[in-house]
Amino acid sequence: MIKGLAITPPVLGRITIGRVVEKNGKRLPEKDDQFTITTQIQTKDGWLKHPLDEELRKESENGKLRTIPVRMLFNDPDLNFRAEYSLFDRRTGRPQCVGDGETCRRVNGEGVETLPCPGPDTCELGKNGLCKPYGRLNVRIGDEDELGTFIFRTTGFNSIRTLIARLRYYQAVSGDLLACMPLTLRLRGKSTPQSHRTPIYYVDLTLRDGTTLTEAIAHAREVHDRREAQDYDQAALDSAANTGLKNGVFEHDLDEGNAVTEEFFAPDPADSTSKSHPVKELGPDTLKAQLSPRT
Predict the structure, then answer these.
(1) CB 251 within 8 A of CB 8
(2) How large a percentage of the chain has pLDDT more than 90?
(3) Range of the domain at 50
(4) Adjacent-strand bridge partners of 273
(5) Of 36, 63, 82, 158, whose CA is between 20 and 30 Å from 264?
(6) Does some domain include residue 220?
(7) Strands (E), 24-164
(8) Is the CA virtual torsion 207, 211, 214, 215 positive or negative?
């Protein structure tokens, strides 16, 4: 295994509640009031929609996709959803600093060092919105690829807090059968003084409509027993995923970093050269540069 390269869950597509639009010659993020499921292919007109988007949209009210039936790939909540404070270099898309509020890993001229992490509100490097909470949720949609996932990325505290709580609660009440629970990604709205009473949207994780918690746990037990009879080793899958994620200092690659900074992180106001940059092709020198500070 290549050291320094995080092995993340296989991704089949993306789940978003917004998009990047061009206004006055600039590419800017724009929020939405519904989910969109896309492929991993991006053209000049945006991300291509995944066939599941149209399929699920036909079953929704008014054509707005606000619920998505999902399952988790892992029993461990922290493998399904990873969240940290993250600061990206706007010009390269590479992570500069990733922390959890106690310690952080920060890139300097000689490699990666571990430092105290005060959080974005009091960190000199991450002030003015340069550092944000950044979460990634991997979920399964359908049964076509039982090890493939769709990824939902967010920098919203409401989504991050809610998803962490739900995943831990469902793991606890199901007796560590989180990967067998029938769940739904659900878009919720709320208003706050900070939003000037206009709706803001965040993502919740609930049971399927019409399913009680008792029924969902019973279903999870049935799925678990059936998998065991077929020698499906969930514990080994979780262990392999955990080892792969720990293999890299940072989870993000250059392709993901450019897309993330464009969608979630505003340009650095102190950097007049900071603009949205297109995703670059990876060549041998690029990969070498990406891995060099991690060795």
Answers:
(1) yes
(2) 60
(3) 11-80+143-250
(4) none
(5) 63
(6) yes
(7) 26-43, 46-49, 67-70, 81-88, 95-99, 103-108, 111-116, 131-139, 149-154
(8) negative
d(CA 280, CA 70): 32
Cα separation of 86 and 95, whole Å?
7
**Distance between CA atoms of residues 286 and 283, nearest Å:** 5
Q: What is the pLDDT of residue 260?
A: 73
Residue 286, pLDDT score? 39
Residue range 88-115: average pLDDT?
89
What is the pLDDT, as a whole number, of residue 287?
Answer: 36
> Which residue, chain included where needed, has tokens 């949609």?
141
Q: Is 132 helix (H, G, I), strand (E, B) or coil?
A: strand
Of 17, 13, 15, nearest in space to 202 by CA: 17
Amino acid letter at 115? Answer: L
Question: Rounded CA gap, 265 and 71, in Å?
Answer: 29
Q: Which residues contact 286 (CB under 8 A, 6 or more apart)?
A: 254, 280
Please give the average per-residue pLDDT across 242-264, as a whole number. Answer: 79
126 within domain boundaries = no
Where b means 16+ CB within 10 Å and e means fewer, 47-85 reads beebebbeebbeeeeeeebbbbbbbbbbbbbebbbbbbb
Structure tokens at 94: 């590479």
Of 18-27, 100-109, 140-149, 223-232, the poorest mean pLDDT is in 18-27
In this predicted structure, what is the pLDDT of residue 291? 38
Q: How many beta carbons lie within 10 A of that of residue 121, not counting itself?
A: 8
| Structural domain count of the chain | 1
What is the SS3 assignment for 147-170?
CCEEEEEECCHHHHHHHHHHHHHH
Per-residue pLDDT at 142 exceeds 90: yes
Question: Mean of the pLDDT values across residues 12-41?
Answer: 83
Please check whether residue 17 lies inside any domain of the structure. Answer: yes
Residue 268 pLDDT more than 80?
Answer: no
94: in domain: no
- pTM confidence score: 0.85
